[in-house]
Amino acid sequence: MQLSFTAADEHFREEVADWLNDNLQGEFAQVRYRGGPGDEHHFVNERKAWERRLAEGRWTCIGWPEVWGGRAASIEQQVIFHEEYARAGGPGRMGHIGDTLTGPTLLAFGSEAQQAKYLPAIRNGEAFWSQGYSEPGAGSDLAAIRTRAVFNETSGQWQITGQKVWTSLAHESDFVFVLARIERDSQRHHGLGFFLVALDQPGVTIRPITQLTGTAEFNEVYFDEAECGPDDIVGAPGEGWKVAMGLLGFERGVSTLGQQMLFQTELDEIIRIAKENGAATDPDIRQRIAEAHIGLRTMRYNSMRMLSGGEDGTLSREAMIYKLYWSSWHRNLGKLAMDVLGPESELIDVAPYELSKLQSLFLFTRADTIYGGTNQIQRNLIAERALGMPKEPRGSAK
Description:
The chain is an alpha+beta fold and 398 residues long. The protein has helices spanning 7-23, 44-56, 75-87, 96-109, 112-123, 240-251, 255-277, 283-306, 322-341, 357-365, 375-386; strands at 129-132, 148-152, 157-164, 175-181, 192-198, 204-208, 219-228, 233-234.
């Protein structure tokens, strides 16, 4: 990954920016800058319609091969798209998980039949996906999952029983990919399967979880012999961990640059308010704003370095630091926002008493260092996988 862009890349940037500015008008003007963290409950149907508009312009799944409707865009072009999307105020993507996680995983590990069955609807903005990884007692320790999948010889279907939690946007999704245990006595990373499961079926119950922000982005999902077909397991039975880790590699992909552009928008808003209310004259506030700016630039260059991973989702060692770095930075940005607001940070003006953007930012960032692997877990991953240090002892000493 280069740290600069060619003239052709910059021409592509102009094309992206022009299309977004032309189309984030009229019926879609109301969704600009909406649907992000803490705001995900707004304009859901409109944002699904926006996915279809993106598909019409061939701006969904741009890194996919052309045979599946993508543009086969280079890494540089994908970075540019995500940056310009955030800069233009593109709304929170309802198709994000399908576009950047499910699709690349099926392209890397799925069969031709699975690709033909699922990829077109993702590409066309017609099917929406959620992630079924974490469970009660198996959040950061994903290998401790207990959800089970059993193949029913009579019906010829996989039957899945168990519970998933922190399942983002499951209540607005059509499908979920599920990591489940297929061998009864298997332990840890062994004996797992990676399944593609329809949510609109008997045996699936979705219960939203209300967050500090008052919204419900994620859910508990219960499976009671929910079914999927014999061809809906990705990879061979027992290879679920390999597929699941490949998917997490794609999660550290080019969309992280778009995430950083959203961070820049938040920082710009904090700076604007600091100048208006006089907080910018406080030396401590000025220093923290400078540190936030430096941290964001550091984050960008580290992201560009880590995008040199393999097409199967494998991560370079640099990628191991990304989650720990950005989540800690973003949590501190939430604190900075409250300190810049001063006493107003604790006030909500009038009914219906909705949080302001910066209040939602502060509350939502409380979770940043927990979901996707806690900071403690991230430090273990850096030590063991990036630095090759001995693994942390498990179990009690005797």
